[in-house]
Write a structure and sequence with these properties.
Elements: H1 12-59, H2 70-79
Length: 85
Amino acid sequence: MDGEDIPDFSSLKEETAYWKELSLKYKQSFQEARDELVEFQEGSRELEAELEAQLVQAACSGGCWALPSPGTLRDINTGYFLFLP
């Protein structure tokens, strides 16, 4: 637990307060980490959508007959660099 040693308690009330405070500290850390994860995931989705739009635009810049589906875009995105000279 953060490299802390568990102190000796003089009463049950003191021990209860210690564990309650520690649990609240970990709960707050968990909530902050969860909020950061949600923010990261939202940013990742926005970036993915932007990159897919740029890929469609780049693929169609010379004129294209049909727009690829999102699944095709992911396939193109993952294999695109394999065919570059």
